Amino acid sequence: MAYAxxxxxxxxxxxxxxxxxxxQRRPELDALRGLFLVWMTFTxxxxxxSDFVNQPVGFVSSAExxxxxxxxxxxxxxxxxxxxxxxxxxxxxxxxxxxxxGYHLLMVAFAFTIAAALAAKTHRSAIxxxxxxxxxxxxxxILGGVLLIYCPPLLDILxxxxxxxxxxxxxxxxxxxxxxxxxxxxxxxxWVWAQFGLRELVHAWIVRVTHLPIPLxxxxxxxxxxxxxxxxxxxxxxxxSAQQEMPLKRVPGYVVAGCGTVCLFFLGCGxxxxxxx
Length: 277
Fold this sequence. Notes:
By secondary structure, the protein is an all-alpha fold. Helices cover 69% and strands 0% of the residues. It is built from 12 helices and no strands. Helix 3 (62-84) packs antiparallel against helix 4, helix 4 (86-122) packs antiparallel against helix 8 (157-178) and helix 9 packs antiparallel against helix 11. It is globular, with a radius of gyration of 21 Å. Mean pLDDT is 82; it is low at 1-11.
């Protein structure tokens, strides 16, 4: 069912309206996202240059920037349509998810054929170590790769992107229907739970259900239950900016002071740690 422009979505709480013109893509944000992709490429190249681009400002990398910006763009571009035609947005997002999933399958196919042949022929450890699980358990690796369970090193960001895109319509629908506090609250609970072994628990359950003996370290470097916090934060900010609301437009001074204190503390810990190396 479609709703007139600016008409409230039949949600609990205050109505949500959009009085601004239709949100357009912002080339500068797309360019910045492309820069993060290039940054990630340099980070994983086996050269000394990666020492300067791998988390140069602490535990923040190009991957966080790419995931956050991607989610923010999705929130900006799809919120208006979600207010007017939720089912249409679900179809569009899932169609895009299927497209990205196809790219993932192409990358995995390349790794399991050309890269595997090079590894077997040259015996170069830099290549062999990336797909050693596939070389030892090809059938399990192929099925696990298709199911997004087995994620070879350097090929694990697309599976995470696919899963987040697939679940994004749920987050948008809940945010529009019941309010973003429920989405942010649920995301925060998952993030905290992720610090206490949620990933290991879910992995054990998946192995038991699928009968695919894929080790945890072969499921990728990203803890999805923690990284969803980055995605949800970007999705929320993108949706709010599409409504001409900027939650972080005015940040209280005590928050800035607290963040500065925390940064200085961990910067000092890092300097002390470097001095001991």
